[in-house]
Amino acid sequence: MRHEISLRDVKDLVGTEIGVSSWMTVDQTMIDTFADATNDHQFIHVDPERAAAESPFGGTIAHGFLTISLLSAMNYESLPVIREQTMGLNYGFDHIRFGSPVKTGSRIRGHFTLKEARFRGGAMLMTTYDISIEIENEKKPALTGSWTTIVQFDPKDRPEDA
């Protein structure tokens, strides 16, 4: 269950891990659906027999971009709701690195540490998270990086000390 926080509480959370998602299984159906949506049908993603025979992974793996896209669901499930938020927007990613392939059937989960939060203009809060996606029973994460989002709110809700 997601909990709520106020805009004035956000600054106090900088430097802390504020969300860890539930485990999510990346199965072949998910990978195939993503391949169809992106028209990326490289055999290491969609052909289990060929991937087992010709790749170093022993089978198919998830697309890196599929792994990134799952951050949205992980974020929604695990990060607190900002009570005054009227809309949220992606601003971008920095320093994305794919540390380990996500093999088909693996379970993954996201970790979110609030790195920075700063008010911009009268009605925006820019938040930057250090992110990682952990693979169950693997030493290296599937990915690491930095994700910046924008929280929009009614200007009347801006904290006075912001």
TrEMBL record:
<feature type="domain" description="MaoC-like">
    <location>
        <begin position="13"/>
        <end position="129"/>
    </location>
</feature>
<dbReference type="InterPro" id="IPR002539">
    <property type="entry name" value="MaoC-like_dom"/>
</dbReference>
<dbReference type="InterPro" id="IPR029069">
    <property type="entry name" value="HotDog_dom_sf"/>
</dbReference>
<dbReference type="Pfam" id="PF01575">
    <property type="entry name" value="MaoC_dehydratas"/>
</dbReference>
<dbReference type="InterPro" id="IPR039375">
    <property type="entry name" value="NodN-like"/>
</dbReference>
<protein>
    <submittedName>
        <fullName>Acyl dehydratase</fullName>
    </submittedName>
</protein>
